Every structure is written in structure tokens, then in C-alpha cells.
């Protein structure tokens, strides 16, 4: 575990390294402009923003942490459990006490949680929204911990089952929740049992995995419990501002309740809510079928087994399993490690993924199916940010179109092709990863699905370019090694302009929460109005493509993202003779 001082120093050093890398990388790709992906089509890439016993005070630090991630291509963040836990400010969140206390009430010896108070959480969620990042709540439905008093349960004996829940009393009211509200007490009747023993008159419920896990097992057969949790789910989405849920240990929870709760919360909003199950079961397809709602995804633990084999150097690269290679591939959330599989001391005795980790990330980030997860401990503590940044960016800008398995994959090398978007030039890729450390370079004749196209390795692991023939074929090289054995060959942008269009560019850092707007003498530029919002690309280059108006004048304005340009660039107007001029000054 990092101390606070060490963590601060480590984070500062990482930011310095990342900044230097970003500068060198932006210079390297200056001749290769990035494709402009329509906002609605940008790939979802998830970041797990915590690991065990890390990031106390996370809510206050989250905007600064998330800003460079958004620039790379992260679109969603999985946050640790925000609700008040039994251990108060020492709780990482999985010993949940009061679902309605998000660092707002003086309970368990503290008002704030380990990560901050309610106000800081709301500020963090607002900052993420400004960055275009969705936030997912880590919900622990299975159990409660930290009861306030013991009760005598008839036919059982004494148990810690009486919860006072001041947070619940403040937010869960008849005025707020109407028919969902029921006046009942969180006492032993709200639980099925503890210590793997049922309370009299109870049953464990319809669970897919073994029913008892820990704490006081919540009774989701109880109608009042079901209704309160539905009200809580609406509150988290519509009042607090989350966009999805990671559902902890959910296979131990009644399957019928899980289905009904997910469907209820989704129906309560027009937003497309993200639900992902943490279900450590042997048949994840069977679990998804049992829950039987199209809204639920699941973490792909079976695919991680392949990454364990890859780490050991024994993986046959021709054959891959997991949910992402099954009939439910569209519902897979892929990952390499998380806070349970990669924890100091490995308390669960999990098989580790140590070697070929960049190759594993290339596999999940660049293939067609699955929502990939980048783990904070890999990115931050283990120093993988420079290599992961390139892979995240490759997903953000190039990993589009139909996926094609290369028929010539070997036990040592795996290759995969994305065909690109027909209406977005420059998209598509050829990805190769090595599962052996031979210290050689091999080339493979692969159909890139793009004819007469020049490709370069976006990772920089292999120098030079490759040009496909009229049928799309080319020989793509790969270093067959652990240290640099992953390459992502992407189309090199043409030096000419698309017929009938022009692209205006301006290099300017406008600061957090702001965008650069292009305005000018043509209607496509707002005819000198507030302007048209540009798209940010690497190196703080803002750009906008419009139909070629011939002779025209233009300038830039600065304004809040998603609104309108307000502050004018100073100096003379630009014209069609220089589409990427120097910034005049101002703002």
C-alpha cells in the first residue's frame, strides 16, 4: 500500500512522464491526422478509478485525474462504492451500512466517506459530465454490515440486525417516493440470515451462486425491501447523477429481484443505463440467461483465464474463450485485472497476470466486441500509462468497423483486423500481439480490408510504413517478444484534402471545460455568429471540416463546452489561404 506522501509523489511523477510522452507523441503524429469520429459512434472505454486501499479523498482529486484520461479516449469511469460503510472513513465501501448516505450524515464516526463528502462527490460527477465521461456506481446489494443494535430473533437467538439509518430517514420519504415508499424498519425481518444460517421462516431466494456470502444477507423476497431499492436506484440515476452500476457479487442475490430492479431503473429514465454484473460463476452465459434482461452485461472472468495462460508463456494464440467469444459477446465487459484479482499480498490466492500485459490490453481494447476496462493500478502504480495511452487512443480513433480474425494465426502470434467506417476515412486497423519472447521479428500477409493504403504502427514498436495492394493485402511485421510484441497498424492520413471540403485548424489550449469555436463569413461558420464547436485532437489542435466555400474569412472564439463561443481571438482575420495559422492571441 502506498502512503499518502508516496502516492502524491508517484502521481506527480506519473503526470510529468505522461506530459513528456504526450508532447513527443503529438510531434510524432503531426503528419498523421486523426480520424474525426462522430460523437455518437465513439467507442465506450471504461476506467476502474481505484484499487484496494488506494486514493483516499478520491472525489476531490477525480477531475484532475479524469482530464487526461478523457483526452486519451476514456468515456466511462467505474467508481468505488460511495455509500457509507461500517468502518466509516476507513471503509473502502464493500461493508455497506447506509445506501442513502453518500458522505452526507454523521454516522459510523464520520460524515465523509473514505473518498469525500456528498458535495465533493456531486462536484466530481459534474466535472466528469463536462469531460464527456459517464460515472458508474459500485452497488453492493448482497449484504449490510454495521448494525446499530442487537435483536432477539425468535427461534434463533441474538443477532446484530437493527439498523437506524439516518441517511435513509432523510431521503427515503413518502413525499419523495409515493407508491414505492413503505414504512418499515430495517430489523431482522429485512434479512434472510447470517453466518450461513437462515433465520426462522426465511429462505435464501432464487440465487444462481451459493446464497450466503457475508454480513447480514438482505431478503429480496421482502416486498418493502424491493420497493425501497427501486426508489434508491431512481435516486442514484435521476437525482445524484450516475449513469450506470457495477453490481458487486450479484450472482449471490435473488435473480428475480435483479431482473426486476434493472428493468425498473432502466424504465425510470430515458438515459441508456449501463449495468454490469460481477458474477464469479463457471457459466456466465447461463447466469445472463437466468437473469433474462437485455440490459445486463457481465465481466468476462473466463477471458482473464486466457490472460493468465498468456502471462505464463503457454497460451496458444490461435484459440480464445470467454464471454466475448460466445453468443453473448455483445454483453461482455472485458478486463485484465481489478481490485480483487490484483491486490497487494494476493489475499484471494488469485492466479496473476504479470507478463504480456500490454498484449492482453491490446486484445480487449481493439477488438469489435466487449467494453474494455483499464485498471487504475496498472495505469498508475505499475507505470503502464505510456503504453496504455497509445492503445486507448488507438481504440478511440481507429478501432471501428467489422472485426476479422486472421486465418493465419499461430500458437505464438495473434492478429486481428478492423475494417473501418466507410464514412470516416482513416479508420480501421491491423492488430498483432505476441505470446512468445523469441527476440525476433516476423511478418504476416494479412488482408487489411483497405486497398492501396499506407499503414504505420501507432504504438511505435515497429518503425516504417506498410502499403497494402489493390486487394488490401500487405506484410505486417511484429516483434515476437514480450517487451515490444504488440503493434497496431493504422491508416496514414492522406496529405490532400477530401474533395469539396476544407478543414480549419487552430492549436490552442483553452482550459478545462472550454472549447474552441470557429466562426466566419460563411453560413457553415455561423456567418460571424457565436461559431461552430471544433473537435479536440492530440497536441491541443482544434479542427472543423466544412464544405469548401471558396474565398472566406474566419476566426476563433472560446466558450464553455457544448454551448457557444464568447471570447474572440484578437488580431486580423484568417482566410482560405492558411487553414492552420498561428493563434493571434487574446482570450
Task: Give keywords.
globular, alpha+beta, single chain, 32 strands, Alpha_amylase, 12 helices, 24% helix, 24% strand, 6-stranded antiparallel sheet, 8-stranded parallel beta barrel
What's this entry about, in short?
With 587 residues, the protein is an alpha+beta fold.
Folded structure, characterized:
It is a single chain. The chain is α+β, with helices and mostly antiparallel strands and about 575 residues long. The chain has twelve helices and 32 strands. The strands form eight sheets. An eight-stranded parallel barrel has the order 1-2-5-12-13-14-15-16, surrounded by four helices. It has a six-stranded antiparallel sheet with strand order 17-18-19-24-21-22, with helices on one face. Strands 26, 27, 30, 31 and 32 form a five-stranded antiparallel sheet that branches. Mean pLDDT is about 90; it is low at about 1-30 and about 495-500.
Strand order of the largest sheet: 1-2-5-12-13-14-15-16
User: Structural class from helices and strands?
Assistant: alpha+beta
What's the average pLDDT? 92
* Total number of helices: 12
Q: What distance separates the N and C termini?
A: 44 Å
Helix content range: 10-25%
Query: C-alpha Rg, in Å?
Result: 26 Å
Globally, the shape reads globular
Strand content: 15-25%
Q: Which regions contain 5 or more consecutive residues with pLDDT less than 50?
A: 1-31, 495-499
Number of strands: 32
**Biggest beta-sheet profile:** 8 strands, parallel, barrel
Amino acid at each position: 500500500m502506498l502512503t499518502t506522501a508516496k502516492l502524491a509523489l508517484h502521481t506527480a511523477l506519473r503526470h510529468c512522464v505522461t506530459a513528456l510522452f504526450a508532447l513527443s507523441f503529438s510531434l510524432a503524429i503531426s503528419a498523421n491526422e486523426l480520424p474525426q469520429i462522430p460523437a455518437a459512434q465513439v467507442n465506450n472505454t471504461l476506467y476502474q478509478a481505484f484499487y484496494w486501499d488506494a486514493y483516499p479523498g478520491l472525489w476531490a482529486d477525480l477531475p484532475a485525474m479524469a482530464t487526461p484520461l478523457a483526452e486519451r479516449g476514456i468515456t466511462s469511469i467505474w467508481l468505488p462504492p460511495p455509500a457509507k460503510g461500517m468502518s466509516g472513513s476507513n471503509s473502502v465501501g464493500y461493508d455497506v451500512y447506509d445506501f442513502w448516505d453518500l458522505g452526507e450524515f454523521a454516522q459510523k464516526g464520520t460524515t465523509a466517506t473514505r473518498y469525500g463528502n456528498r458535495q465533493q462527490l456531486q462536484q466530481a460527477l459534474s466535472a466528469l459530465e463536462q469531460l464527456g465521461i459517464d460515472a458508474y456506481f459500485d452497488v453492493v446489494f448482497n449484504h449490510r454490515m454495521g448494525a446499530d443494535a442487537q435483536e432477539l430473533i425468535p427461534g434463533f437467538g441474538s443477532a446484530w440486525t437493527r439498523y437506524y439509518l439516518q441517511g435513509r430517514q432523510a431521503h427515503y420519504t413518502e413525499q419523495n417516493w409515493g407508491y414505492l415508499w413503505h414504512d418499515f424498519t430495517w430489523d431482522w425481518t429485512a434479512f434472510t440470515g447470517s453466518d450461513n444460517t437462515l433465520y426462522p421462516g426465511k429462505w435464501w431466494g432464487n440465487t444462481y451462486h451459493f446464497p450466503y456470502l457475508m454480513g447480514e444477507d438482505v431478503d429480496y423476497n421482502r416486498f418493502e425491501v424491493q420497493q425501497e431499492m427501486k426508489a434508491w436506484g431512481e435516486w442514484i440515476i435521476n437525482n445524484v447523477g450516475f449513469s450506470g452500476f457495477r453490481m458487486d457479487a450479484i450472482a449471490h442475490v435473488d435473480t428475480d429481484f435483479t431482473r426486476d430492479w434493472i428493468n425498473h431503473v432502466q424504465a425510470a429514465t430515458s438515459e441508456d443505463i449501463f449495468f454490469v454484473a460481477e458474477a464469479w460463476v463457471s457459466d456466465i452465459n447461463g447466469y445472463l440467461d437466468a437473469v433474462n434482461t437485455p440490459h445486463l452485461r457481465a465481466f468476462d472472468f473466463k477471458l482473464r483465464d486466457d490472460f493468465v495462460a498468456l502471462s505464463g508463456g503457454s497460451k496458444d494464440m490461435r484459440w480464445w474463450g470467454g464471454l466475448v467469444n460466445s453468443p453473448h459477446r455483445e454483453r461482455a465487459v472485458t478486463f485484465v485485472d481489478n481490485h480483487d484479482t490484483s491486490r497487494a499480498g494476493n489475499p484471494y490466492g488469485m492466479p496473476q497476470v504479470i507478463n504480456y500485459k500490454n498484449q492482453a490490453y491490446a486484445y480487449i481494447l481493439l477488438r469489435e466486441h466487449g467494453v474494455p476496462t483499464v485498471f487504475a493500478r496498472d495505469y498508475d502504480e505499475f507505470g503502464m500509462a505510456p503504453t496504455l495511452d497509445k492503445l486507448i487512443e488507438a481504440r478511440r480513433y481507429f478501432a471501428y468497423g467489422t472485426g476479422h480474425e486472421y486465418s493465419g494465426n499461430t500458437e505464438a502470434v495473434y492478429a486481428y483486423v478492423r475494417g473501418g467506417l466507410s464514412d470516416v476515412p482513416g479508420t480501421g486497423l491491423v492488430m498483432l500481439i505476441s505470446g512468445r519472447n523469441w527476440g525476433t521479428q516476423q511478418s504476416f500477409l494479412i488482408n487489411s480490408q483497405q486497398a492501396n493504403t499506407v499503414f504505420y504502427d501507432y504504438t511505435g514498436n515497429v518503425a516504417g510504413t506498410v502499403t497494402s495492394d489493390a486487394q488490401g493485402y500487405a506484410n505486417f511485421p511484429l516483434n515476437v517478444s514480450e517487451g515490444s510484441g504488440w503493434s497496431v497498424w493504422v491508416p496514414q492520413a492522406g496529405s490532400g484534402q477530401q474533395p469539396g471540403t476544407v478543414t480549419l485548424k487552430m492549436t490552442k489550449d483553452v482550459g478545462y471545460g472550454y472549447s474552441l469555436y470557429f466562426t466566419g463569413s460563411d453560413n457553415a461558420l455561423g456567418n460571424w455568429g457565436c461559431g461552430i464547436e471544433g473537435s479536440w485532437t492530440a497536441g491541443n489542435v482544434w479542427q472543423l471540416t466544412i464544405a469548401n466555400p471558396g474565398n472566406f474569412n474566419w476566426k476563433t472564439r472560446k466558450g464553455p463546452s457544448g454551448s457557444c463561443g464568447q471570447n474572440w481571438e484578437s488580431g486580423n482575420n484568417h482566410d482560405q489561404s492558411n487553414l492552420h495559422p498561428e493563434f493571434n492571441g487574446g482570450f
